[in-house]
Write a structure and sequence with these properties.
This protein has five helices and nine strands; from the N terminus they run E-E-E-E-E-H-E-E-E-E-H-H-H-H. The protein has helices at 51-54, 110-133, 135-147, 152-162, 179-189; strands at 4-9, 12-16, 21-25, 34-43, 47-48, 57-68, 72-78, 83-89, 92-103. Strands 1, 2, 3, 4, 5, 6 and 9 form a seven-stranded antiparallel beta sheet that branches. It has a two-stranded antiparallel ribbon with strand order 7-8. A hairpin with a 4-residue loop joins strand 7 and strand 8 (83-89). The longest helix is centred in the middle third of the chain and has 24 residues, at 110-133.
Length: 190
Amino acid sequence: MSTYAVIESGGKQYKVEKGSSLLVDRLSAKQGDKVALRAVMFRDKEVVAEPKELERVKVEATVAEHLRGPKVKVFKYKPKKGYRRRAGHRSELTKLEVTEVKLGARRAAATPKTEPAEEKKPVAKPAAKKPAAKKPAAAKKPAAKAKKPAAKKPAAKAKKPAAKKPTPRKPAAKKPANKPAAKKEAGDGS
């Protein structure tokens, strides 16, 4: 059973093993640089897919070279319409050589982070006295929030449902035709 990982780069996922090479979308690293890749899944004796466990997975690769993919020709055509469009595209790629795929021990980086925080605490105590003067200003902010009338918004919503529907239009009344009356008048005068 081989050890492999599924990594994500540029919105795409790739299956990698130690010693394998792969082409990914262009990375900003220079040729020869080491790159840490984000693992989405890891398999050794058992499958690791939980985010907390995946933090321990280490996938490293070196940038072998930057290159361009093959030219892709795009031609759009609609018959009998005189519509023709030509376009082309070449992908910017980076070739990676995978150097390491392993499941590491738990992070030991948490202990160095706590030590500098302890050193900063004595420095923060004198600074804590100065914000005490700013507390009245902080008290004004909630008061400003309380001044905003929350009742206006529901009132505006209440007006919208109260709007009446427009009444349907009545059909126009038919006018009597004046033509027969005009003929009678014309007949009387002749």
